[in-house]
Amino acid sequence: MNELVFLTDGSVNAEPYTTGDIIAKYAGLTHHGVNAKIETFKKDLEDFGGLVYFMHKPPKGSKGGRPRKVWRLNDQQATTLITLIGNSRQIVFLKKALVKQFYAMKEELIARRVAFKFGKQSSKGLNDVIANSDAFEDDSHAYSNLNRLMYKQALGMNTAQIKKLRGIPEHQAITEYLTADETAALSKVKSQTSVLIELGMDYKQIKATLANQGIIYQIKLEKPQQAITG
After folding, report:
1. How confident is the model at residue 1 (pLDDT cuts 50, 70, 90)?
2. How confident is the model at residue 58 (pLDDT cuts 50, 70, 90)?
3. E strand spans, the chain
4. Helix axis angle, 20-27 relative to 75-85, nearest 10°?
5. Which of 226, 197, 2 is nearest to 97 (CA)?
6. How confident is the model at residue 228 (pLDDT cuts 50, 70, 90)?
7. Which of 92, 110, 115, 132 could form a disulfide with 180 if both were Cys (CB 3.0 to 4.6 A apart)?
């Protein structure tokens, strides 16, 4: 039961959920049986939020089978549904595992959101420092160049590489898709860069100075746990 709870996307605004298929699998029930239960108690489950689903298609090349409806359930909906299904030892074990994973996922999201807020403050401070710097007075690309440098120094990848790795939409800020540890590393490098700018250093000097400490937190290659797609 390593992966029972997922995120709607990889951003700090994501919401955790499980699915009817997950409940069916670990409760020892059929997909059809769980879906029937959801349909029967749909109005009760909607007391805890809107119910949505996606269509899961059979693997390409497989024989037979049709797309099937897979319901998403938030923590309250999942807990309520399991209670309605029964209280066998297997179901109780699943319920406990789901509660733990929902809690852990919410704690991680809270940590990321807090780090994101602090990160926005450090970015604003850096902007002000650059605007008041004689070394970057005539450099219209100062922030973008320094931004790429800071990401590389903090996380071992530049902004383009991180966007590709995490599948971040073009209009979305990268900081919305970082973990709390990654955001903390980036904030640290931004603070260091602000100090170096205030000391009168130019881009080359800042790059050389930051390089001496090595990468703060090497970004993980895998994407954050996200939504299942059909």
Report:
1. low
2. confident
3. 6-7, 16-19, 52-56, 68-73
4. 40
5. 2
6. very low
7. 115
CA nearest to 78, candidates 121, 27, 120: 27
Considering only CA atoms, which of 224, 22, 229 is closest in space to residue 105? 224
Q: Which of 209, 173, 175 is nearest to 192 (CA)?
A: 209
Give 224's pLDDT tier (boundaries 50, 70, 90). Answer: very low
45 close to 38: Cβ distance less than 8 angstroms: yes
Six-digit token string for 162: 């991180």
Q: Using 50, 70 and 90 to split pLDDT, how confident is the model at 113?
A: very high
CB-based contacts of 108, cutoff 8 Å, min separation 6: 179, 180
Contacts of 16 (CB under 8 A, 6+ apart): 5, 6, 7, 8, 74, 75, 102, 105, 106, 109
Compute the distance between CA of residue 196 and CA of residue 10 in angstroms, rounded to an integer: 33
Res. 208: pLDDT tops 60: yes
